[in-house]
Specification:
- The complex is a heterodimer.
- Chain A is of the alpha/beta class.
- Chain A is 39% helix and 13% strand.
- In chain B, the strands form three sheets. Chain B has a seven-stranded mixed beta sheet with strand order 4-10-9-8-7-5-6, with helices on both faces. In chain B, strands 3-12-13-11 form a four-stranded mixed beta sheet.
- The radius of gyration of chain B is 26 Å and the shape is globular.
- In chain B, 57% of the residues are buried.
- Classes of the chains: A alpha/beta, B alpha/beta.
- Chains A and B meet through strand 1, helix 1, helix 2, helix 3 and helix 4 of A and helix 1, helix 2, helix 3, helix 4 and helix 5 of B.
- Chain A: GO terms for molecular function: pyridoxal phosphate binding; sulfinoalanine decarboxylase activity.
- Chain A: InterPro entries: PyrdxlP-dep_de-COase (IPR002129), PyrdxlP-dep_Trfase (IPR015424), PyrdxlP-dep_Trfase_major (IPR015421), Pyridoxal-P_BS (IPR021115).
- Chain A: One of its GO terms (biological process) is taurine biosynthetic process.
Amino acid sequence: MYFYVQSRFSLLTADGQTMEPTVGDLSDPLINHTEGQLFLHEAFKIIVEEVLCKGTDVKEKVCEWKEPEELALLLDLELREKGEQKEKLLQRVRDVAKYSVKTSHPRFFNQQFAGVDYHSLAGRFLSEALNTNLFTYEVAPVFVLMEAEVLRGLRELVGWTEGDGLFCPGGSTSNMYALNLARYRLYPEVKSQGLWSLPRLTIFTSPESHYSVKKGAAFMGFGMDNVIFVKVDDGGHMIPEDLDEKIKLSKSQGAVPHFVSCTSGTTVQGAFDPLDRIADVCDKHKLWLHVDAAWGGSVLFSKKHRHLMKGVNRANSVAWNPHKMLVAGLQCSVLLLKDTTNLLKKCHGANASYLFQQDKFYDVNLDIGDKSVQCSRKVDCLKLWLMWKAVGSTGLEQRVDKAFFHTRYLVEQMKKRDGFQLLREPEFVNVCFWFIPPSLRGKEKNADYQNRLAKVAPVIKERMMKQGTMMVGYQPLGDRVNFFRITILSPLISQKDLDFFLDEIERLGNDV
Amino acid sequence: LSSAYSVPRFTSDPLASAFPAQPGPPRRNAWDGVPLNGSPLDDLAAESFLQRSMSMILEEAVKKATDVRQKVCEWRSPEELKELLDLELRDGGESEAQILERCRDAIRYSVKTTHPHFFNQLYAGLEPYSMVASFITDALKPSLYTYEVSPVFTLMEDAVLRKMVQIVGWEEGDGIFNAGGSMSNMYAMNLARYRDFPEIKELGNSAAARLVVFTSQECHYSISKAAALMGIGTKNVFVVPSDKRGKMIPSALEEQIKSAKSEGAVPFIVNATAGTTVLGAFDPIDEIADICEKYKLWLHVDSVMSHLFSSHRANSVAWNPHKMLMACLQCSVFLIRDKTRLLQRCHSARASYLFQQDKFYDLSYDTGDKSVQCSRKPDAFKFWLMWKALGTRELEQRVDRALAIARSVWGNISDFAWLKPLSNFYFILLPLYLQVAPVIKERMMKKGSMMVGYQPHGGKANFFRMVVISPQVSRQDMDFVLDEIHSLGMDL
């Protein structure tokens, strides 16, 4: 007999006490799988009804607003010694659905994600059920291969026939990886020696870029002050001539410019930086060009609109978030690289021998875990792959084209109504506008006009949330006071929803 | 499992809106062939697809995957698998039946990490409550940066963090759920750096002298990756030797700190591990804490592997409920003993498009600026629902059970293997040294009977690392594993 089972040992705690575990019979399975699966079954019905049916129904509210203290009481958040019964837990599931914002609702316009795609949803459920990590072929054979294929497909759209890449836990991480790669390419010794003995490295981006560039710079030891902002024009586009100037200035100050992050689809205005001309500047100075296309990358699916990203193939790296315009569902963020020298792995690899053994019985190049800074990494490619298989590139193209068309429609309608003032003609699917209530119309010359205008959006926002009729975001930008930003991307909306949007802003804001 | 869910029809057709039609310009119904009004999906088709895919997921990926009579994995070589899966992405779409078939294939050829004979990694098992919570978050797809977009999950994360701070034994604290234990360890380093040298946030590392990190030779490799990413440099991670049980040697730590200082470097953080990845060792936290206090260093305890234990003297703790408590991936927490909003101050960028200061609710509920991420999934919910369902007592019992099972199989092993004693408590790791591990591994995977990881360690040859981390495993499963290794390796 190979071994025998001994009587239970008494266990020693770290402070030397003995402890007899009261764990019941060790031959019993711990979890009653039948019960667990029944719970899953029941909970799924609630999810379908409350989140998917009601959550996409225009007759239902977008949100059920409650003050934080009130909501905390309603949810009964406290974690206790004893567990609860199934019926109670199902009620909790219902409550969570009820008080959560319905981000798939046709009148949810608040963020850069919206709508629902049922294929990617099934892909998400499946990823959760299989619960695996994407570091080695042995643990995740299907997904290692799938991730590679999805990355290849996305790279093709960028215009690269070869390259590298990875799925990251968010666009912020993708941007950080790009920063790290650029730094490592220039000074490979930084990996082991750190920044201490290196000259001051500088990073260039526009003030309308995503704040993750700044956060990344702080996190990675560059310092936020070494992120140099390049001037933008009125539409929020980086001015290449100013980029050139700023690079020269930085060099003259003894710093080493090493990275330019331009944006395809800025967060607020939806501007697309002129990639070709920026690439010229980067080529001239030999800087790494990163394109943060987290928001706008999906235009690459559209033959009609991909010109917005003309020149993207000249970049070194591209960040793209399919969970935004392609409705893949959080998280789905990609970093694509032009590099074919295995830079990603060299930069990030730690060669942990407990995970990446070199004597495995299959091609160990498939163990891609060392390309990441993460250890455990979720499977985020299945949701995109399944959706892409289901609707095809053509289907995704139609989705993008439709969003542009709806945007044009909304802008046309807005121009016909009093009180709606666009910041400028939108380039993408972000429509930024002020609503001028009747009380302020014609009073632009008043001294306190800007101050009063700034207070309009917050009031309308509060009203819409408390009534739950829709959600749209507002913010200031530079010297422009609070304005609304509606992002039109959900494949579930129609012109009727856009008409409603304008009517509702008027209804909520007319007496402000 | 029957596939008949009786749910109401999807009513996403906006033409069914309650608002009366406005007179206006004639509306185009299509443009270039793209339908503009009405849902792009046939509602019946959407409902049918979802029901059928869910049935299949529950049957194939959940029920069968935990069935000990089924295989753990269906091994195929990469070339073969690529062909089977037909991964290529094309212009045209596919039918519902084809898509369901693809889901089935994805399940079939995936490793069943919830299977009772899956011991390959430091996570395993199936926790149905956390899985339900994952499904809910996937359906709702919220992002956890502001109260307005995620009211429920903001409050839940806060409640879970408070409770965990209590369990660690701190009076006050802060924290955040992260995209993995590696990230939690990075946060610790970032906060420690910021605490000592807040100007580094603006000016960069060069505003300070060369900073150094201390950790044991058995620590997780994320410490090294973090040092590289954060511009500190892997050479500035001083590796403290550990004893033969894998525990950091405190006197060696102190030596190294003094040595670093004499070089002109600035020690700023010590990373202690409670449950190392390979040997399952616990660094002597109290003695290390004494040294940290003496030299005023930040003490971080990487406790991702184990139940929180004796970490109350730490400045920060990293803990992963997705490991021993079986919550679905990702479920990783970073806790910090601080009431000065250090996390917020260290990471904030105050983006005005997200964190407007003139909102109509209490802005302290907008927690997004504590994170380095922007969009963030509400992983706390998985843990909250599970905790509500089971209660603290049951969670503790599960951990105890895992330990008891590990202990219960400690017995006589043949002389070609060597078992490491577990008397410093609380680890659930059975190293079995075998010269022929890679061959046995290949056989077990091709047979699909189980999965156990192996690796070399220190000067020793490959050995199997039997991780009994999932409390769902029973004694029979443990017996099976040892029998199977024996039978697979008998002819070697």
